[in-house]
Prior knowledge:
single chain; alpha+beta; Hypothetical protein af1432; Alpha-Beta Plaits; five-stranded mixed β-sheet; 19 strands; about 50% helix
Amino acid sequence: MSLRSLAAELLPAALQGLQRAPLVQVQTGPVEEASSFAALTEKLGYLSKAELKQVREAYKFADAAHLGQFRASGLPYITHPIAVAGLCADWKLDAQAIMAALMHDTIEDQGVTKTELIEKFGAPTADLVDGLTKLDKLQFNTREENQAESFRKMLLAMARDVRVILIKLADRLHNMRTMGAMAPAKRQRIARETLDIYAPIAHRLGLNQSYRELQELCFEMLHPWRHAALAKAVKRARGHRRDIVERVQTEVQQAFTKQKTRVEVSGREKTIYSIYTKMREKHAGFAQVSDIFGFRIVVPTLTDCYVALGVLHQLYKPVPGRFKDYIAIPKANGYQSLHTTLVSPLGTAVEFQVRTEAMHAVAEKGIAAHWIYKTGDKRHAAVDAQKLSSMWLQSLLDIQDETRDAAEFLEHVKIDLYPDAVYVFTPRSKILALPRGATPVDFAYAIHSDVGQHTVAAKVNGEPVALRTELKSGDVVEIITAPGAKPNPAWLSMVRTGRARSKIRHHLKNMETEESRALGEKLLAQALRAEGLQMPSADPTDAAAVALWQQLTRWSGNRSRTDLMVDIGLGRKIAIIVAKRLAQMMGEHGIRPDAVTLTLGRYGQDDSTATQGEVLVDGSEGASIQFAPCCRPIPGDQIVGYLGRGEGLLVHTADCPTGKRLFERDSERWMQVDWAEEMTRAFETHLHVLVKNGKGVLAQVASAVSSAEADITHLDMDPTPSQETTELRLLISVRDRVHLADVLRTMRRSPVVLKVSRSRLS
């Protein structure tokens, strides 16, 4: 049965229920449980008397701050901070975290200052509250920009102290439980934000219980009709399968009793959201989702996990390929269990999870289990979870170091909130967890930034592979580096981790800035020579030069001399205009034009483009100088340069139609460009080839190009060839015009080539 037919069958009944109740049913149990401070105090028995006194003071402060404030449901606002503190108490968080939970909205909503909190409750608690405070008081251009900056602040605070995100997740969980009184549009927006950001963070930190509940609540808010239909179907299936569940549970319990193994057997049911996700992924109907129910086996020790697995496999037949050992290789969030799928007595597939009590605490509460198991032998599993989560938290700080834009930072973080992972090995058998779809480049950056920056090749399982190859669990990956290697811009389209993406972008930005600065220096120096002046010194100890540059940057609106040079190199400012202003300022300081410099600087009397001097290109240029794709200039062509706005210098051939149109529209942005005496690389150009149809035509064309010592870098064919001829469009790599002439002569001698010529795209 498809999801659509299921909905058609169940919606009438679901709609009747919805007409009798609010659209979003509020879960009152957990909220009412900690709606008063007395109820909260009952949960805080693990704190000392002195700590309880501090918590009581924080409650009084928060109660006074929120006096007269009410929630959308009509309840006093203080019930919300108490409920959030209650959720934190369930995780056994310390007194500072409970105090911060009680006061988490005081700075944001009530105008309390951080300084006031420091004086009353100490710096650690104040830092937690500040980390939870959004940036609503600052001015941003858009709501999205505000949201991104707030997320960045919270996530960075979380990276320094994970209690920030635990309190925030408790806050979001309580808000999701009590959103029935909100406007539908606001409910939808908050639910979408929660599903995209907060639920994945909960999963990434191993808070699986909170993760599942957040997903379930978001699904109910975003798709109430689908949720109602599936809830009805699950309830009906629960009744149909009750007998098989009870039988399996009884038989499993009896099998362990015979083995004299102490275990806890409990049934579990998939959430409605996970059922819905599986139906969408597999394009299946509800009846085709077999593993709605499963069982969890909790045993005393690690060895008992594998003993229990043997007992289960003797009782029921395992399904081949459905066994996973997450104990030997934990998930990225610290989750550990043995997973196996067995065939029940009625032929249905049933999943079993086997774990110890400590593993179960980590599986449900993730990094929060660190506070639950602060003492005793069980602590090591919680500490392992904290270590794995801390690795991700540290990566947030690494990404922040490379990324200053809040929206870009949030994009990188979203990439890292992956729901699944592959586990790969270094040559020394160290295990690394990477997101599904990760490549050797991601692997290289996961090892160390320097390894990623100098990657040139990779081997997987001893065999050379392309850098865009997707890694699979169990692969042994070896990275080959070279000292002079640099990140390639094309890597951005293949990497999957936020760390790799931010490191690559940071390097490319720095490289572009440095190249643009160097070009800007050259252009301004040449334009200034045309005025008969030399560039003022960049020496910071030269007071006169420093004053001159400060005056110029104030005029241009730049923060520094470097920024001004970058703007000139990128074409945001015209070198000749800046040079004339600088010459005027130098004149005011008593610096006069020099006749020799004036002679060197001017290459023509009437050519306005010549007054800026001549830029030499040799192929070693990076992002600041590009070759126009329309005409593809090669050494030997007459060339000119167009200084685009923010795009650097674009080189065209002198007879390029596109270039001529740009010159007519924006003539002051053109300048003289010429080839250097020695080239550092080959250059690409387009060829148009008319060939006879027949077997082996492409091979003969490629052979002719190869015999002339040129390379084909791209090839397009006429999609509708005639019976006798076909048009080919080649992009070939040549040294210069002389080399191109050799290629054309060689191709014309081929019997299959009827016509060949250089072509333009314009």
